[in-house]
Write a structure and sequence with these properties.
alpha+beta, three-stranded antiparallel beta sheet, two-stranded antiparallel ribbon, globular
Length: about 100
């Protein structure tokens, strides 16, 4: 088992790992935890769109996916109030604001 996954499980620190990406053409990219993926290609071939599609699916957005047809995720750890309070700030309306780290 990967050490980052074990550490996240032991610390209960919440993380999201991408296990696989299926593209509209049927190609499936299987990933290991902590894989480093580099998308290369000419301008306007869809590199940035893949990242937007992944972000959209992780955030469970209503934005339609253009390049990615399926995304398999692994959620590890717990999201408790202590975690939120120590990493995010409240805005004027009382909502927490901040950024979440995604492990792709």
């Amino acid at each position: 088992m990967n050490t980052e996954v074990e550490r996240a499980r032991d610390n209960r620190e919440p993380r999201v790992f991408v296990n696989s990406i299926k593209f509209n053409d049927g190609t499936v990219l299987q990933l290991n935890h902590n894989s480093i993926i580099v998308f290369i290609g000419p301008n306007n071939c869809g590199k940035s769109q893949v990242l937007r599609d992944i972000e959209s699916r992780i955030e469970d957005s209503k934005r339609p996916s253009i390049v990615v047809s399926e995304l398999t995720l692994d959620y590890v750890g717990l999201l408790d109030e202590d975690f939120v309070r120590t990493r995010f700030e409240r805005d004027e309306s009382g909502r927490y604001q901040g950024q979440v780290q995604y492990c792709v």
